[in-house]
Amino acid sequence: MxxxxxxxxxNPSKEETKKRIWKILHSVNDPEIPVLSxxxxxxxxxxxxxxxxxxxxxxxxxxxxPAMDFIGxxxxxxxxxxxxxxxxxxxxxxxxxxxxxMTEEAKEKLKSYGIAPPxxxxxxxxxxxxxxxxxxxxxxxxxxxxxxxxxxxxxxxYQCNDCREPFDYFKCx
Amino acid sequence: xxSKASNNAKNDLVDYTLxxxxxxxxxxxxxxxxxxxxPMLEQDIAISNIALDLIGQAxxxxxxxxxxxNSNNEKEKRVTxxxxxxxxxxxxFKNLLITELPNDDWAKxxxxxxxxxxxxxxxxxxxxxxxxxxxxxxxxxxxxxxxYHVKWSSEWVIRLGDGTQESKxxxxxxxxxxxxxxxxxxxxxxxxxxxxxxxxxxxxNIKDDWLKKIRTVLDEATIDFPDEKTWxxxxxxxxxxxxxLGFILAEMQFMQRAYPGLEW
Lengths: 173, 264
What we know:
The complex is a heterodimer.
Chain A: H1 3-10, H2 14-25, H3 38-41, E1 44-50, E2 53-58, H4 67-81, E3 87-91, H5 104-113, E4 115-116, E5 143-147, E6 155-160, E7 166-170
Parallel strand pairs in A: 2-3, 4-7
Antiparallel strand pairs in A: 1-2, 5-6, 6-7
Chain B: H1 3-32, H2 41-72, H3 81-86, H4 97-100, H5 106-127, H6 133-161, H7 165-178, H8 190-194, H9 207-220, H10 243-258
Helix pairs in contact in B: 1-2, 2-6, 5-6, 5-7, 5-9, 6-7
C-alpha cells in the first residue's frame, strides 16, 4: 500500500483529514468567476472518507454548466497534489443547487469583482418579479434589466441608470 | 412481479426517460442554430443560454437512461449517454414534434419556446413528486432553469404580439402554425400509460394550468386564443417524425457516425 495515503488518512483522525480537505478545496476556483472558490459557491456538498478513498460530492449550478467537468478535474488535481491518491468525484442533483448556499463572503467578493450578487435570499415567488438590483460600481438601485441571460448561465445583464455602467448580475436561483 | 413484467416496466421507464431527453436535446440543438445569428447580441446570448440549459437537462436524462439500460443488460456492451444521443436513428427518437420544427423567424422561435417551456414548467413541477428519485432530482434541477425560459419567452410573445403591425402579424402566424403541435404534449404515449402514476406524471393534471398560462400570455399579447378544435399532430413520442428530424440528426450525428468513438 502507498505509505503516503496511510500517513495522511490513517494517522490523523477522519474528522481532521476532512477538515484539511475542505481547506484544500478553498483553492479550487470557479473557472468562469475566478474570485469565487467552489466552497464559496456551495458546489461541494459533502466529503466522505471511506476505505482510504476520498469522495467529493459536487452539485452542478446549472444542468448545462460547462464548467462542471473542469471543476471536477481541478478538485482531483489539487487533492493529488496534496497526497491523496484515491479520489472519487460524484455528482449529486438533489437538493438542487441554490444561490442561497452562497456565503456572505462570496457575495462581497462578487461585488468587488464587479458582479452584483443575488438580491434576494430565497428562491421564492418574488424572484420572477424584477427585484431591485444594486449597481456594484456606484451602489445605486436605479438599475434596469438588459437581458435575463448573460455571459454565463448564472448571470443576467443589467445597466445602471445613474453611472450608466453595464454590469453582470448573479441571478437568484 | 415476475421478471418479464419487471423488464417491461424497465423498458417503459427507459422510453419515458428517453422521451424527456430527446425533447430537450432536439429543442436545445435547434435553438443553438441561432448562436451567432441572433437579432441582437443580448438575445443571441439569451437563446444560446436556453439551448445550453436544455442540452444539460438532456444529458442528465440520457445518463440516467443509460444507467437503467446497463442495469438490464449486464452481459452486453455498456451503453453511454453519447450512444443514446448520437447513435439512434429517427425512429428511435421520442421527442415532441414541436421541438424539431425549423426555427423560421424570431416569432416562430419564441413561440416554440413559449409553448414548450410552459409545458416543461408544469411537467417538472409534477415530476418532482415522482417516486423515481433520479427523475425527481433531474426535474427539481431543471425546473429552476425552465422558469426563466417561460419568463423570457412569454415576454417576447407579448412584446411581438402587442407590438407593431408587422410583429403582430408574425406572432399571430407563428401561434397558428405551432398550435397543432401542442396536442401531443398532453396525450400519454403507451409507455406513459403503462408506468404507474407514482413514477411518471398524469398529463391530465397539468392540462388546465398549461392552458391557463397560454391564455393569459396570449391575452396580454392581444392575440386570439387558437381554435381548440384544431386537428392535432401526433407521433413524436412513438418515433413517428416529420422530415425535419432526419436533417437535424444528420448534422448532429455526422461526426460520431463517420468517426465512431471520436472525442474532442
